[in-house]
Amino acid sequence: MLKKLGQPLSAKQTAFAVALLLALAGALFGLYRGVSTVWHRRMLERWTPSVLAGIRSQRDTLMALVESYKSRFGFYPPMFTTSGPTRGVINPLAYELLGVRFNTNTGQFYIPVTKDGLSVAEAKKYFNTQGFTNCVTVPALATNFLANRALSVSPVTKEADLFGVALSYTEFTPEEFWTDYDFTPWRYTTNPAEHNPGKFDLWVEIGVNGKHFTIGNWPEVQ
Fold this sequence. Notes:
The chain is of the alpha+beta class.
C-alpha cells in the first residue's frame, strides 16, 4: 500500500530523494550555464564592433600625439632596433611620450608611472640606445605628451620593467567583457616603417572569442 501523506520516509527513500534533487539541481545549473555562455558570446559578438571603434579612436589620438612629438623635436620618436622578432613589440614610445628623467646619482632613467628605474645598460639592451630624446636631468620635468589622455601604460615583457603605451579599454568596453578581450600594448616602428615609408607604423593586436583583429595606421588594418 502507498504510504500515507506525511509518513516519514525510510533512509533509502530519503537518500533517493536527495540524489534526485541534486541531479535535478545539477541539470538546471548546467542548463543555466549553457544558456548564459551562449548569451554572453552573442552579446560579445554584438559589442565587438563598438570596441574596435573605441580602439580606432584611441589610435587616432595616439597618432596625433606622435605628430605633436615630431613638431616639438623635429622627428618621430626614434627607434634604433632595426630587426628581430621583437621589433615593434618592444619599443621606446611610452618613454618618449611620457618623458624621461635621468638621475645622475643612480644612473637610471625614470618615467612617471613607476618608481623603478631603467639602467643605461637596459636601455642599450632593449632599445639599442644609451638615452632618450624627451629626457631631462632630475629635478627637471620632461614633456608628458600622454598627460590627461585616454591612454594607459602597461608592461611589455616579463624580462625587465619595460613599459609600452596601452589601450584604456575600460573607456569603451563594458566591465562584463573585460576578461574576454586580449589587448596588446601599441606596437610602433619607424626608421624605417614598413607600411608608412618616411613616417611610422602603429598597431595593436586584439584577441576575442577565438577571433583575431589588428588595428593600425595603414589601409589594410584600419
